[in-house]
Amino acid sequence: MALPAESTASDFRGLFTLYMAIAIAVAVLVLAAIAYAAIRYRDREDMSPRQVRGLKQLEGVWVALVTATVVVLLVSTFRTEDRVDAVAGDPQYSVRVVAFQWGWRFSYPGSGVTVTGNTQRPPMLAVPSGVPVRFEITSRDVIHSFWVPALRFKRDAFPDRVSEFDLTVEPGVSTTGRCAEFCGLGHDGMEFELVSMERGDFDRWLKGRERRARSASGGPE
Amino acid sequence: MRRAALTFGAWGLWVGAWALVLLIWGEATVPLIAFAAAAASAAVIAGYLALSPLESDPARTIGDTSFAPPLIGAGVVLTCNGLAFGLWLVLIGAELGAFGVGVLIAERRRARLR
Amino acid sequence: MSTVAQPLPRVGPFEWALSIDHKRVAARTAALALVFFLASGFLALLMRSELAQPGLQFVSTDTYDQLFTIHGSGMIYLVVTPLALALGLYFVPLQVGAADVAAPRLASLGFWLYAGGGFTMYAGFMTSGGAGKAGWTAFYPLSGEQASPGTGMDMWIIGVALAVSGMALVAATIMLTLLRHRAPQMSITRMPPFCWATFFTCAMTVTSFPVLVVAMGLLFADRHLGPVFDTPGGPATYQHLFWFYGHPVVYVMFFPFLGVVAEVAATFSRRRLFGYPALIISLFAFTGLSMTVWAHHMFATGQVNNQYYSLTSTSLAIPAGVEYFDVIATMIGGAILLRAPMLFALGFLSLFLIGGLTGIIVGSPPLDYHVHDTYFVVAHFHYTLFGGSMMGAFAAAYYWFPKATGAMLREWLGRVQFVLLFVGVNLTFFPMFLLGYDGMQRRVADYSPNAGLTTNNALATAGAFVIAAGVLAFVVNLVVSLRRRVPAGHDPWAGQTLEWATTSPPPRLNFASLPPIRSYAPLLDLREREERAP
Questions:
Q1: What residues does each domain of chain A span?
Q2: For C301-343, what is each residue's pLDDT tens digit?
Q3: What is the ipTM, given to two decimal places?
Q4: C abuts B (3+ Cβ pairs < 8 Å)
Q5: In this structure, which CATH number among 2.60.40.420, 3.40.50.720, 1.20.970.10, 3.40.50.2300 belongs to the domain A93-215?
Q6: Which residue of B has its CA nearest to C113?
């Protein structure tokens, strides 16, 4: 899946590449060591077991190497997490998300616009692109989880609190989001469509929905 | 025995150190309580081991079979299931368990008298 | 080496059930764990059959939810944990030169509670609402009375509480045996690596298992008496209580098998284990750390200190690295015999490696934000639990079956089984890394046909049946080896530890006499001394 360039997902990409590189390097090294040991020291004629010299010192080097790697990984993780978890001081846009068994309701505070959907008709989540959008999520019943794979981000929706996070979405994104916390029979169908628009387009879209909600009594929900 | 006490004491200190970390930097109380309880129990066990007299494995009479574990076990299992199915099952389980405890006491007394 | 045939003494079923000989209690536990393994594995085959293609072909979503709940619950509460502790219950008294376990009736009671708990959990399938279906974790409020009404869920809660209590009792008796009933010459620093690994296992067990029993009690009370978790902060509190048990338990399911692998590596390399002090210290550090990492399961909740738990979780790589080094360094310089126990030990080392490294990946919160609750995590823990613990369990089986029964397992069937399982584990679980990364969440009965998930699901299903074939090979091996016995003698592997200094199977009180104990490998010492002064 191609990752958007300037968004919450780009933080993930750099960190994941670092972790994967180290994991693959370690895996290759350790598997090679196992293979070397199993093959080179396979029992043959007149072979007697003995202590190979230098291994104790090598162990010290190995522990130092692993410790240094752990430090590198942690520093990178903490830096990336600070960026991903950062919440802007005064966000211009915000969305309220209510997860329920089994669907999603998105509302835009200050405008009276609400979009609801369920497993039959997944709702559309429209957001402005290129700016941090504040999300306030909660659940009406059990724990759900708001996950957008393309953004490499998820956050659980708990029934007893409102959780806040910011997401920045690249323009032109149209991607599926799903519930990631097992919530019963409708868990596998609880999807939504995340669509990003240029700020001007988003403002127009929101005003259009506002007008329709006000004119039609009851409004399409 | 001293070394066993030291092992437990070290374990208690290790867990206690993390409890201290949680006390200073943590946000929730439940994990802190769990950690502190674990550290405290380890300390108590270490103390017991340190203070109890050194003794080699004393001669003990170990039986080959016993009715007590399956009876007490069945009693507990039925009592717990009774919480879902009704008081009648709780009572049956309790009676079976009590019988099992009686069997246990009888077995141990028989072993001591031998 | 004597090869006098030692047929198992004829034991009636009554005596089998009532025996409080620690070896019989352990054998009962292992046998029942094998039964639950086959049952829970069958549930997995049903799940994989359903997931091979998009669309619901065989089972309803409701049934599928029961399948994955009981599969996971069965494997963790009823199979791998009891297997790990059964090994300790059988072999710790032997390895420390004790005549029996410290509290034989208590250990036996632990078995019966586990058995009763297991059957209670599975009996949920017979209720009108079906078995528990809130996952093996039973998060609240999904496991509450409103979202999961019905007796099946209650029976799941009761079953878990009973099984976990039983295992805690077994662990307590093993621990007491280690501390109070070692042979006079066996100081604590002369305990074999398996005993040390089991000691730390039991420490984690007695510390964390009671917390889960309490959590189950509170959950039951919330369902039937009044709000316990139905309060601000309640759902998160449940998760803290659950994971305080839920993380140490995975090391309870790992350590004893690591101990076996260390001993198998030493025995089959015909050498002393490398780095005994370093191994013990790293086990200690690993254990301590394991009690501090639990909320790494809660990164995505946004309600815990992610940095603290990421720090402790990632630090686990350091003692793990030491353990790997010591085992591999034992092989280097050895004269390795690639018999079945050693093959499974090598399988353990290579497959657990993948599980462990991916564990480091999910230990990073920003990365976990994507892969948490997806098939990436499912792949990670199956590599550690199947590729690690179960391969270690099979290593233990091939290593110690001769001691416990007096008969050898068929070597060629062991190799067939090894190849099938090694291939099967990779074929089943590697595609799951890709599935999770590509957007497939956990615990779903179905998935979209346009999401690019079908091929990897099909591969995983094929792999599951390869695993099944490997397990079948093991069952066949058990039956054949017991029917047409090849006598093992008291020490078929030229072992290093005390269990090989007695008959196969050992007599009721384990030892007629003990050899001198000057290190953790007394039989190796004896052999070396005999070679030097014939």
A1: 8-41+54-84, 93-215
A2: 999 999 999 999 999 999 999 999 999 999 998 999 999 999 9
A3: 0.93
A4: yes
A5: 2.60.40.420
A6: B73
